[in-house]
Amino acid sequence: xxxxxxTAASALFEEQCSRxxxxxxxxxxxSRWFGVGRSLICFAELTVVLITPSKALxxxxxxxxxxxxxxxxxxxxxxxxxGGTSHAEYARWILVAVLLVxxxxxxxxxxxxxxxxxxxxxxxxxxxxxxxxxxxxxxxLLMLPIVLTDNRTWQWSPPAKPLHPSGHAVAYAAFWxxxxxxxxxxxxxxxxxxxxxxxxxxxxxxxxxxxxxFGVAKPWDGPLLALSKYPLxxxxxxxxxxxxxxxxxxxxxxxxRWRKVGLVLDILLHxxxxxxxxxxxxxxxxxxxxxxxxxxxPRPSSAAxxxxxxxxxxxxxxxxxxxxxxxxx
Length: 329
Description:
68% helix
């Protein structure tokens, strides 16, 4: 009986290894899905430095002194390397140039590290960074192993050569890291809000809509402020946001089809944030990250045997009955 159990365990292990090997050999991130997601993140941060003057980004707030924060590892940011606040405009235009080239998708391998450095500079040096800067920096770091294997001239062009076998493995691991990190962000955001009284009792949106800084913008203020006087509407908006965040976290970890459901929910959630609150850069970073995490995985190669293809499809994570990867490639 012990021998039979060992044999069954060995067979199961070999089957799982075969499935993983097939997925690794089929995985190729070089599609427009990945390009759109990466460009959205770069474009979001580009708007921060292009539209906002350096004086506004480095303005003193409470105990934060005037100028770029350059203590410790922050000294590596562009604002500190050019000589601090007095030369902040030089840093601003350097960051604009770097993020613009990265956003248009030119030479991904060679712009990957400058992209990370540019977003890092914004996240650690400006006076009041929002969550978008932090998420953009983390996602750029997690995508770095993926982008460094991309030797195309333009990220929008089809790949001319197959990836090196090690490139498949590195990119696949980084792809899962992006999915896990994004799922954690949404899960942690939703769960932590339940510990705040206004979110727990369903009244948080009532106060957000009336906030002097982040309240609802025109022309939506009239109808939404009127609707928010009804308790059921406020509770639905407040708890609805938490449910959507939880659903996004779960969908991101699912199959191709469920990840697309999560992407739609993400666009609806952050699209409403753009319309109602005007947080463009934050919303675009989150949508771009979700696009990367929702990238469909290709079906097994036609070179695989029918048994191997059936084995991969049974394992079923992301390659089942979904042909949308071909549409965006």
